[in-house]
Amino acid sequence: MPNFLQNIFLRLQASPGRLVLREIRGDQFVSITAGELLALVETARQLFRARQIGPGERCGLIAANSIHWIAADLALMAEGIVVVPLYHRQTAGELAGMLKDCQPSLVLTGEEETSRTLSAAWPEIPAPVTLAKLFSNAGPKSPTSLLREATDNDILTIIYTSGTSGEPKGVCLTVGNLNHMTGCTAERLNQLMAGTTVADQIFLYAPMNFAASWMLMLSALLRESVLTLSTDLNKLADEIRLSAPHYFLNVPTLLERVKRAVEDNLAEQPAPIQSLYRKTREAGQRQKAGRAKPFDGFTLALGRKLIFSKIKARFGPNIRALICGSAPLAPETQQWFLMLGITVLQAYGLTETTALCTLDDPRLPVEPGYVGRAVPGIEMQLAENDEIIVRGPNIFSSYWNRPAETAMVLRDGWFHTGDQGEVNASGNWRIVGRIKNLLVLNSGHKFAPEPIEDKLAQLLPAAQQIVLIGNARSYVTVLVTGTLEPGVVQSAIDQINPALPHYRQIRSFQILPEPFAPDSGLITANGKLKRGAIAERYDAEINSMYTRKATA
Fold it and tell me: Residue 393 burial (CB < 10 Å; 0-12/13-18/19+)?
C-alpha cells in the first residue's frame, strides 16, 4: 500500500496540467502546475545526488513559505533525507544552535543574507545553498526518479519545539506518523467540503516549519486543492480576499485582532449602526441561551444583512470555516464568528503528536471553548493534575539525541503532553493550561494562569501580552505590556476579581510599555510566553509590586 508521500507523487503525476500552488505577489498570482512542481522536485533531487547526500542525513531548510520551499521539502523526503525546517525569522544564534544539534550535511536558505549570518554564527556550517541557486537550472526534466523505499519507522523530519523553557528539542516524526495523520486530516477536510465538486481553495500564511502548517500543505497536495501562499503578512487582509479560500489555518491572535478591528470600526459608525450591532449581538446571545424574545429573529436577520454580511465578505465568497490552533481561542471570539455565519473549527495538538490530537468535526455543532474530539485512532486520557496523556500512531518516536528527555514524556506507551485539560460528556476536550505554568503560591494553592490571562485579554484589547505572577509569593500580580492607562487596567482587574477565589485575585499590576518581541528571548517564534525568562528579566519590576503592596 503506498505511503502518503507516494500518494502525493502519484496524484501529481496523474494530472500534470492541474494548478496546485500559487504565491501572491502584490495583487497577482505566481502559479504552478503539478507537472511544473514535479520538474522542480527533480531538479533538487539531482543536486542532492550529485552532492552525495543520502538517506538518513539531515538538511536544514530555513526560508519563508514559497513554492520553492515546498519543492525542496518534497525532494528531500523523496531522497530519504531528513528535513529540518527552521523558522527563518529566528536569530542567527538560535538557528545555529539547532543546526549544531542535528549536524546537517546541507543547509538550504531563502536569502543570501541568511546564509551569511548563519556562517558568521557557526563557521563550521556546511556552505549554505539558497533556494534560488538550488532551482537555478529548473526546467523540463526526464520522468521523476523513483522514490526511495521507506518503512513506517524511518525518520522523515526533525521539527524543533519552541523551547518555552530550556533549549529547543528536535521532535523526530516518522513516515508512519504522517501516514496516519495525513489520512485523518484529509478525512476531516472531506467532511468540511462535502457536497462540493470544485477543488479546495486553501490559504496558508503560517510558516511551514510549524507542524500544523506543514500538515495542511501535505494534505492539500493529497487532495484536489489549490494552495495559495501568503508572501506579505502586512497585506494579509488583502491576500485573504484575493485568494478567496474555502478554509485556512489560523492562530487565536489573528482572530482576536479581526474582532477587535471590526468593533473599533463600528465604534466610529453612526449611532443607528452601533445600536443595531449591539441589539443583534444581544439577540444572538439570548437565542443561544434559549431565552429568545419575540422580535429577536427579525433583529438577527436585519443585523446579518446590513452588518454581518459585510464583515463576512472580508474572507471572500467561498469561506466555509476557519481552522484555529496553537492555543485555545476565547469562547467569546468563537461565538462572535459564529454570529457572523463563519464556523471556527478548533484543533489541539503538539509537534510531538504530529500536529493534532483533536479537531472539531465539521458535521457537528461546535462548542465554543472546546477543541473538539480526539481524531480517529488516537486515545486521550487525564492523568495526575488533570494532565492530558495521548497514545496512538501520531506520537513522535523520540527527541533527537535526547534519550533521557524522551523517556520523561513517553511512559508506558503514553505521551505526557504537559497540558492540563478537561473532557465533557460529549467527548469534547478543553485545554486549561500548561502544567509547568501552574502558579504555586506560598499558601500551597495551585492554579493555571492562562484562564485568568485570557479573561484580562478580552477586557484589555490594547494589551500585547499579559503574564500572571505568583510563584512562591503570597498573592497574585500581573505584568501587562502595551500602551495602556493604569485606570483601564485596574478597571479590568476589578471586573474579574469578584468571580475569583481569594487566592487567585490580582492584587497589583505593572505596565511595561514595550511588548515582548520574538528576538527579545521572552516569547517563542509563535508567540508563546517564556515565563521563566520574563520573570528573570523583570525581577525588579515584579519585586516592586510586592514591595508596594506590603507597604501600602
Answer: middle
